[in-house]
């Protein structure tokens, strides 16, 4: 039928986190954030015309509610278009799950705008994708990206951060998790009730400046230590929420965090960052990644571990 081009967007991992909305409808964040796009995890999406908005994920019919809501927002912003069948594939190596709404909403935004014959910059696409999922705003760009929090819809967008090449790698450790996950949106709303939230905002702004400088100097040790500090601060907000405090950490998360401490005592460059789940991503160098994988596998034989590197921006074919 009328299926045509495909867009491929890679997921990104925030080194300075987005963890709070000051406007839920517009997805305006309380902080600017900074990310590294990854090579191994991506979503490829195409669209075709249909009777109603529908969604097929990895060849299975899937719930289209969130996508339908997002397409309606695009119809308001870009001009009306007919219903679409959205066909997506998530590419996630072996079992280390890092499928994300970031790559999904970036690829969807890219393919729809292209199909409409519009030519928008990646910055403009990032503003639109932000409405689907905040972290998607950063997935149009390869390597490092900054999402400027902005003050309104117009000024809240992401852009590429110019950076010299550095041998950064990310070891992704997926811990098995049985319990039901708290969505990012819900987790953020709870975190906002922490009495420490305002301190975190101030700290995050300073960490963003320090992180940009560490990236300019290709100082991976500093990149890692700022990222870990920022991530642990985010998770401390969850624990100190005055409405429904919670944690994404499991025993295995804690165990990996303490292994990372041991590695650092051994002189290995290893720092943790953690998102809305129990998985730990370890920031390190390309050279040290395999040592870290070995230490993790020895200590925790059932752990699924992958090594990712810097990935590209959105592409179309
Ligand atoms: C912890 O982008 O998934 O990964 O905007 O509600 O869809 P919504 O949230 P989402 O949140 C990502 C949170 C994070 C940190 C980050 O990626 O910056």
From TrEMBL:
<dbReference type="InterPro" id="IPR036554">
    <property type="entry name" value="GHMP_kinase_C_sf"/>
</dbReference>
<keyword id="KW-0067">ATP-binding</keyword>
<comment type="similarity">
    <text>Belongs to the diphosphomevalonate decarboxylase family.</text>
</comment>
<dbReference type="GO" id="GO:0005524">
    <property type="term" value="F:ATP binding"/>
</dbReference>
<dbReference type="Pfam" id="PF22700">
    <property type="entry name" value="MVD-like_N"/>
</dbReference>
<dbReference type="GO" id="GO:0004163">
    <property type="term" value="F:diphosphomevalonate decarboxylase activity"/>
</dbReference>
<dbReference type="InterPro" id="IPR014721">
    <property type="entry name" value="Ribsml_uS5_D2-typ_fold_subgr"/>
</dbReference>
<dbReference type="InterPro" id="IPR041431">
    <property type="entry name" value="Mvd1_C"/>
</dbReference>
<feature type="domain" description="Mvd1 C-terminal">
    <location>
        <begin position="171"/>
        <end position="302"/>
    </location>
</feature>
<keyword id="KW-0444">Lipid biosynthesis</keyword>
<protein>
    <recommendedName>
        <fullName>diphosphomevalonate decarboxylase</fullName>
        <ecNumber>4.1.1.33</ecNumber>
    </recommendedName>
</protein>
<keyword id="KW-0443">Lipid metabolism</keyword>
<dbReference type="InterPro" id="IPR005935">
    <property type="entry name" value="Mev_decarb"/>
</dbReference>
<dbReference type="InterPro" id="IPR020568">
    <property type="entry name" value="Ribosomal_Su5_D2-typ_SF"/>
</dbReference>
<dbReference type="InterPro" id="IPR029765">
    <property type="entry name" value="Mev_diP_decarb"/>
</dbReference>
<dbReference type="InterPro" id="IPR053859">
    <property type="entry name" value="MVD-like_N"/>
</dbReference>
<dbReference type="GO" id="GO:0019287">
    <property type="term" value="P:isopentenyl diphosphate biosynthetic process, mevalonate pathway"/>
</dbReference>
<dbReference type="Pfam" id="PF18376">
    <property type="entry name" value="MDD_C"/>
</dbReference>
<keyword id="KW-0547">Nucleotide-binding</keyword>
<feature type="domain" description="Diphosphomevalonate decarboxylase-like N-terminal">
    <location>
        <begin position="9"/>
        <end position="158"/>
    </location>
</feature>
<keyword id="KW-0456">Lyase</keyword>
<dbReference type="GO" id="GO:0005829">
    <property type="term" value="C:cytosol"/>
</dbReference>
């Amino acid at each position: 039928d009328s299926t045509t081009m495909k867009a491929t967007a890679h997921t990104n991992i925030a080194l300075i986190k987005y963890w709070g909305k000051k406007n839920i409808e517009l997805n305006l964040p309380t902080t600017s954030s900074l990310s590294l796009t990854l090579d191994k995890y991506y979503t490829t999406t195409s669209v075709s015309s249909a009777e109603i908005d529908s969604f097929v994920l990895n060849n299975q019919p899937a719930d289209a509610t969130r996508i339908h809501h997002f397409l309606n927002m695009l119809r308001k912003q870009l001009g009306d278009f007919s219903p679409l069948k959205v066909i997506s594939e998530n590419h996630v190596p072996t079992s280390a799950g890092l499928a994300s709404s970031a790559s999904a909403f970036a690829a969807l935004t890219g393919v729809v705008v292209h199909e409409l014959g519009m030519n928008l910059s990646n910055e403009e696409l990032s503003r639109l994708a932000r409405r689907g999922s905040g972290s998607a705003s950063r997935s149009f760009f390869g390597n490092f990206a900054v999402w400027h929090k902005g003050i309104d819809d117009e000024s809240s967008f992401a852009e590429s951060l110019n950076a010299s090449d550095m041998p950064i790698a990310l070891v992704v450790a997926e811990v098995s998790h049985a319990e039901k996950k708290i969505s990012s949106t819900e987790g953020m709303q709870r975190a906002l009730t922490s009495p420490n939230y305002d301190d975190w905002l101030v700290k995050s702004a300073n960490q963003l400046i320090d992180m940009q400088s560490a990236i300019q100097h290709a100082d991976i040790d500093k990149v890692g230590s700022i990222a870990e500090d920022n991530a642990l601060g985010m998770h401390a907000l969850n624990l100190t929420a005055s409405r429904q405090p919670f944690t994404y950490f499991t025993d295995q998360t804690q165990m990996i965090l303490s292994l990372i401490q041991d590695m650092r005592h051994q002189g290995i460059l290893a720092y943790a960052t953690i998102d809305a789940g129990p998985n730990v991503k370890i920031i390190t160098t390309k050279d040290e990644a395999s040592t870290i994988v070995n230490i993790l596998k020895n200590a925790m034989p059932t752990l699924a571990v992958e090594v990712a590197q810097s990935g590209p921006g959105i592409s179309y074919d």
